[in-house]
Amino acid sequence: MNFKLIETILIILLMVFVGFICKKVNILKEDDATILNKIVVNIAFPSMIFTALLNLDLSTLSTLSLFPIFCIIYCLITAFFVFIWCKIRNYSKEVTWSLLLPSFMINSGFIGYPLILSVFGVQGLIRGVFFDVGSMIMFTGLGLVMLFVFGGSYKLVFRKVLSFPLIWAFIFALFFVFFGLKLPDTVLTILNYFSALTIPLIMISLGLTLDFSTIKDYFLDASIVSFIRLIIVPFIGIFLLNFFAFEGLDRIVLIVDSALPSGMLVLTYAIIYDLNFKRTAAVIFLSTILSLGTLPLWILLV
After folding, report:
1. Measured between alpha carbons, how far is 34 from 106 in angstroms, rounded to an integer?
2. What is the DSSP letter of 92?
3. CA torsion 188→106→35→164, rounded to 10°?
4. What's the CA gap between 142 and 275, in Å, rounded?
5. How many helices (H) and strands (E) does the chain have?
6. Residue 49 clears pLDDT 70, i.e. is over it
7. Type and span of the H or E element at 16
8. Contact residues for 214 (Cβ-Cβ < 8 A; gap 6+)
């Protein structure tokens, strides 16, 4: 396990480095990350979710249904501590929400899926997918809260949610499993090829978007939020899992997911509502970079 973990982290770091170098030598531009992300979100990610969930054991569904709840709890705990920090600093509403946005979302997809799949295999990924349902719920709920606080269009939020391919991949996969449906081997092979694109494209995209100057400008805020996200919340998560007597792979995946960095999707809301976009981005980038060091420690500890 230790060798597999070290190998996985090194592979992830090298792929991120490839993306970063491609930007530096002008092979790719930072804007190209948008194209790569579109391929991931619309093709590769849904294929990975769909093919993984075809291996779902329905007898575990009662336990897996708790995973989204833990995701929501982790997000709310993070946001609570960050809100206290903002009150201590006497930040304005705009700055406060610039920091709360990345606190309310966990990167259970772009970082969680590749790491969990590489270290714990398909059964680990299935648990990661169910945890990510909580992130989808948080994204939807956060959109409604932002409408209440700043105003806007409810249709825009629901359109974004209903057009999110990952949700439909999850729904269709469950439909296939419940009714015992099978895909033709050719189609399944194509989906597996698309699925294989997910990890390298995500990591190269991450390397393209790394911006250390943004982190420097908002280092204090980004450090505090990252510490809460990556250190305090996992400790609380372990306490909760011990209390509810989670064991085995369920426990391990829930602890790893609790230690994931802030989610990237919230940048959309920061832009739409004209918040301090760079402050939000700084939190996401710093927590992502630091998580590459803290995640292996949490995996080794559990």
Report:
1. 20
2. -
3. 60
4. 15
5. 17, 0
6. yes
7. helix 2-24
8. 278, 281, 282, 285
Residue 153's pLDDT band (cuts 50, 70, 90): low
* Rounded Cα–Cα distance for residues 176 and 187 (Å): 14
Residue 41 to residue 23: CA distance in whole angstroms: 21
Distance in angstroms (rounded) separating the CA atoms of residues 22 and 30: 9
Residue 60 DSSP code: G
Exposed/middle/buried for 244, CB within 10 Å: 0-12, 13-18, 19+? exposed
| CB distance 258 to 74 below 8 Å | yes
Q: Given CA atoms 228, 234, 240, 243 in this order, what sign does their dihedral have?
A: negative
Confidence band, pLDDT 50/70/90 cuts, at residue 2: low
Phi, psi of 122 (to 5 degrees): -65, -40
Q: Give the mean pLDDT of the chain.
A: 89
Burial class (CB in 10 A: 0-12, 13-18, 19+), 141: middle
pLDDT at 163: 79
CATH architecture, domain 2-301: Up-down Bundle (1.20)
8 Å CB contact between 199 and 118? yes
d(CA 74, CA 257): 9
Residue 64 has, within 13 A of its CA and on its CB side, a CA count of 18
pLDDT band at 258 (very low <50, low <70, confident <90, very high): very high
Q: Locate the domains of the chain by residue range.
A: 2-301
In which band, very low, low, confident or very high, does the pLDDT at 246 lie, cut at 50, 70 and 90?
very high
Does residue 17 have a pLDDT over 80?
A: yes
Residue from 283, 247, 262 nearest 74 by CA: 262
